[in-house]
Amino acid sequence: MALELPCSLITLLLLVQSVPYSTTAQTFANHYLGSFLTAQNDDSFWASSSDDFAFGFKQIGEGGYLLAIWFNKIPEKPVVWSANGNNLAPRGSVVKLTQYGQLVLSHPTGKEIWKADCSGSEVAYAAMLDTGNFVLASQDSASLWQSFDHPTDTILPTNTMDKSSKLVARYAEMNYSNGRFQFTLQSDGDLVLQTRAFPLDSANSGYWWSETVDTGFQVVFNESGSIYVAANDGSILKMISSPAGYLKGFYHRAILEYDGVFRHYVYPKSITTANAGNWSPLQSFIPPNICNAIRQRTGGGACGFNSYCMIGEDQRPSCRCPEGYTFIDPDDVMKGCKQNFLSQSCDKGLPETDVFDFHLMPNTDWPESDYEYFRGQTEDWCREACLGDCFCAVAIYRNDECWKKKIPLSNGRLDVKVAGTALIKIRKGNSTLNPSGADRSTLIFIGSVLLSSSVFLNFLLLVSAFLVVFRFNFWKPKVFQALHQVMPGMNLRSFSYEELQKATNGFKEELGSGAFATVYKGSLEYSDDTIYVAVKRLNNMERHGDQEFKAEVSAIGRTNHRNLVQLLGFCNEGEHRLLVYEFMSYGSVASLLFGSSKPSWYQRMQIALGIARGLFYLHEECRRQIIHCDIKPQNILLDETWTARISDFGIAKLLKIDQTRTMTRIRGTKGYVAPEWFRNMPITVKVDVYSFGIVLLELICCRKNFEVEVEYENQMILADWAYDCYNDGKLDLLVGNDEKALDDMKRVEKYVMIAIWCIQVDPLVRPTMKKVVQMMEGAVEVSVPPDPSLFTSSI
After folding, report:
1. 630 is catalytic
2. pTM, whole model, 2 decimals?
3. Residue 201: which domain range?
4. Of 269, 523, 599, 651, which sits with the fewest C-beta atoms within 10 Å of its C-beta?
5. 241 and 180, same domain (yes or no)
6. What digits encode the pLDDT tens for the residues 405-422?
7. Rounded to an integer, what distance in angstroms lies between the CA atom of residue 369 and that of residue 297?
8. Is the dihedral of CA 733, 739, 742, 748 positive or negative?
């Protein structure tokens, strides 16, 4: 259904005029009746006279086009307003200023998606102003409709919010649909941050208030960059943010972000080495700690049900699952967590207290999920009370007090200010439940019949014979029924060396080998099915004790992402250290990319995006940050759907420091190693960014990063050759006779530019993997990269 918006009566003076009916980017201000823009590959937009802002279409990943306003001179082109976040427009959609004075966004079929309705008004033209405000104006330049009256999640200087107006956070960073938080100046004058009754468009519960009831009149974002609640006479009632030193020479924006925090950002208009050209948050965001601020009776809180929230060093909330729980959707953590074990049965006569234990989490609580409360008790008493209660999922013990909590848990937070300890009830070794009461009754009945009959003797003989045959002829290791215990809180099986020796037929079929490990194909039996696995035997190991080795394996085992190879189990027996992974049927990217049958252009680009997403997860989204240290095509595997899966992540901490062959004191492989390894600099996630840049060039060009046999010397090092081709405007040389790539040269250019940014010598100049993903998906513009050898002064 189209969204109809009322017209405002604010008068603006618009001086600059332009030629109508243009559909391309331009720097004129006025666009007359009949003017239109079409959603297409390149951004189609109307710019303000200074080119600071633009109105038009932005492609959001593969999902469609957003009709939006953005900062046009900033490389990332951050969106400050959008019309159709809940309903992205397909390619070929048109936004048009009709002859009737309506601004209408239409589907290629002609169906209306959105409109700014000024029916009955004498609209003469539309204009994108240098303030970031898009207006529909009359012939005498009176504003009849303006985007400032209908903000989405952002306000800009000179923008005001009147009573009952609000900002609504987007659902996720790159999902512009309405999310779970809103920022509202209520009719009583109080400015409030609230959770929303998602997916409904209504408030749920407040978690910050300006305390300006009966006095608040407007929220003002003035030209000096200050944000405050003003009274009817214009006086300041509540200062929300003051720029202090960020007046002239900076762009400003204030946004209610998808995590529920309202932040004020500044960006230098003239980029220097000192300011680095990044959006900087001012130390005036509200609330200061959203994890502790949200405490509501309904809803999941700041992070979703069964999860908990904690504030990181960057003052941003991080959502995590407690031990024994995993995210329902790793790509959408706000959906919460689920138990990865069978919960305790409430069937009568089936005690299970011996198969449950507790994981302790100090300074953690889910304050609104308790159903029983006890005073004057010990922690041991609290444990036993929860253990014997089939409803109890977590117990909180604090100052001789005990709270029982049941799932779904809500409003979880971990903070030093939270007193007491959370006792998370989980199954020992992820064991399965005993038979249900009904099943047990059936077994008792059958047993009684058998015992009352002579048939029972024959039955015993048959069972005995079966067990003897099974023991000597049919015993095979069971992947989920092995004798060794599962690691608590995850499905990692601890295998014996003998089991893996049998599974691999004596380590007979080798899949590959490297500097520190050899990989063998194996098979395990599970529920009458054969599961193929890859068993990696580690050759050069740090001399960790059992606990240290298990801790590192545990960190790898907790990862869960579609672009990572899943670890199934391990062996830590004497001198034998092995890791058991799921088997990837299509092998490594290297074997295909540099073989006779190469992946298509589309497949190569999907592989590149998959690698980027996997690294983004390892660097920023998993529980403990993991630096891979050896990204290369040999460590990127492909499953049966051609999905790229990163392998060998997290293994660096398990290896000896003085490894030989391709890894000599340096973690990585020749040609993919970042320069800082050689310069005695701190090693950060940017080493993986560098390696990814090299791999991206290899995927684009279908050739190795270093080839001695090439004819021309300037082609021996792929990175140098790629930059020369880019700089000389000869990118077609990189893809040779690949017709699909030649037909997609705009993407070739964009990906080459991304790769050049990634291989900058100075790690500070390289983008994060998060930004790399955004650039590859089209959510962030790719600026012109510098020569990779520049910006070395900080090294």
Report:
1. yes
2. 0.54
3. 151-288
4. 269
5. yes
6. 999 999 999 988 888 899
7. 8
8. negative
